[in-house]
């Protein structure tokens, strides 16, 4: 089934953190999507997606839970390993799931699992003021870290729902300060979810590291969406920032290619996808 993987082009250098830094410096938008299995990974690679995230959103779109909270480390390793088998060029990030990083030591042990067993190149954690030390500890052990700010789905039971974050001035200022502190602690990428477009632009301009947005407006260095959302597989109410890229594409590969092109050309997100 995956014999085409043996035939992958050797003239497509894999995306690394240096590639992403260069893209930020050059103003080239970074196109990212989630992926959960090898078959989709092959398509994401063929569509020239720059970064693939094995998100704990798999708890919702694959496992059918209402939140990401039930996702375990074993789930993440299983899906990450499958995605890694299908990827060659894109940079591979994997989520540390709920309560897999309550201490520095547990964060390190679980990050090592994602890198060694899962084949990930970077771990992502839902961060804020409380995770600065953890990010610093991981970075101090040469683990590449993506810090996720804004709407943090793992905290949904504490925050009371999936809501836009950073609307009030004090919350926006706190987020800007957290982003700066996370960068200083060693975060290599910052991901912003569901925040006002103006705040996404401000944080992106403040940071030296690449900033990827989902529902954070067009001013970030790159965009990410859940692959099932853009293929219109996800049922029920969709977030405002989702666009159906299967519409008019004919097949999944073309839909992914259309997404990459729309991100690179700055056509996505449009004003109707922003807060
Ligand atoms: O879990 C996930 O898929 C994510 C994205 C929504 C960014 O964190």
Biggest sheet: strands, sense, closure? 8 strands, parallel, barrel
Number of domains: 1
The whole-number mean of residue pLDDT values reads 95
Query: Which small molecules are bound?
Result: 3-methyl-2-oxobutanoic acid
The strand count comes to 8
CATH topology: TIM Barrel
Encode the helix/strand succession as letters: HEHEHHEHEHEHHEHEEHH
The CATH H-level superfamily is: Phosphoenolpyruvate-binding domains
Do you know the CATH architecture?
Alpha-Beta Barrel
Q: What is the count of helical runs?
A: 11
Which regions are unreliable across 5 or more consecutive residues at pLDDT < 50?
none
What is the CATH C level class, in words? Alpha Beta
Structural class: alpha/beta
Strand order of the largest sheet: 1-2-3-4-5-6-7-8
Rough outline: globular
Distance between the termini: 42 Å
How does this model look, in words?
- With 275 residues, the chain is of the alpha/beta class.
- The chain has one domain: Phosphoenolpyruvate-binding domains (TIM Barrel, Alpha-Beta Barrel), CATH 3.20.20.60.
- It has 11 helices and 8 strands.
- The protein has helices at residues 17-26, 38-46, 58-61, 73-86, 104-116, 132-140, 156-159, 169-185, 197-206, 227-230, 252-264; strands at residues 30-34, 51-54, 91-95, 122-126, 145-150, 189-193, 211-214, 222-225.
- The chain has an 8-stranded parallel beta barrel with strand order 1-2-3-4-5-6-7-8, surrounded by 7 helices.
- Helix 2 links the parallel strand 1 (30-34) and strand 2 (51-54).
- Helix 8 packs parallel to helix 9.
- The longest helix has 17 residues, at 169-185.
- The mean pLDDT is 95.
- Bound molecules: 3-methyl-2-oxobutanoic acid (KIV).
- 3-methyl-2-oxobutanoic acid is lined by residues 34, 53, 55-57, 95, 191, 193, 214, 224, 226.
């Amino acid at each position: 089934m995956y014999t085409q993987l043996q035939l992958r082009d050797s003239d497509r250098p894999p995306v690394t953190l240096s590639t992403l830094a260069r893209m930020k410096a050059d103003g080239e938008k970074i196109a990212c999507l989630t992926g959960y299995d090898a078959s989709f990974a092959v398509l994401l690679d063929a569509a020239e997606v720059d970064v693939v995230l094995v998100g704990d959103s798999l708890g919702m779109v694959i496992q059918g839970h209402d939140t990401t909270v039930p996702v375990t480390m074993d789930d993440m390793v299983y899906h990450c390993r499958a995605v890694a088998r299908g990827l060659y060029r894109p940079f591979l990030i994997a989520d540390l799931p709920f309560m897999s990083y309550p201490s520095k030591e547990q964060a390190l042990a679980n990050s090592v699992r994602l890198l060694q067993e899962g084949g990930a190149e970077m771990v992502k954690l839902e961060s804020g003021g409380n995770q600065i030390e953890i990010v610093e500890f991981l970075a101090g052990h040469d683990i590449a870290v993506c810090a996720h700010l804004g709407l943090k789905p793992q905290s949904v039971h504490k925050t009371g729902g999936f809501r836009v974050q950073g609307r009030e001035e004090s919350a926006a200022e706190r987020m800007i300060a957290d982003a700066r502190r996370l960068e200083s602690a060693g975060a290599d990428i910052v991901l912003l979810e569901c925040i006002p477009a103006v705040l996404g632009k401000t944080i992106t301009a403040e940071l030296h590291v690449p900033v990827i947005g989902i529902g954070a407006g067009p001013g970030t260095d790159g965009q990410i969406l859940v692959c099932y959302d853009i293929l219109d597989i996800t049922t029920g109410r969709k977030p405002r920032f989702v666009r159906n890229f299967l519409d008019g594409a004919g097949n999944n590969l073309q839909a992914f290619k259309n997404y990459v092109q729309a991100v690179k050309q700055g056509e996505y997100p449009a004003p109707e996808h922003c807060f």
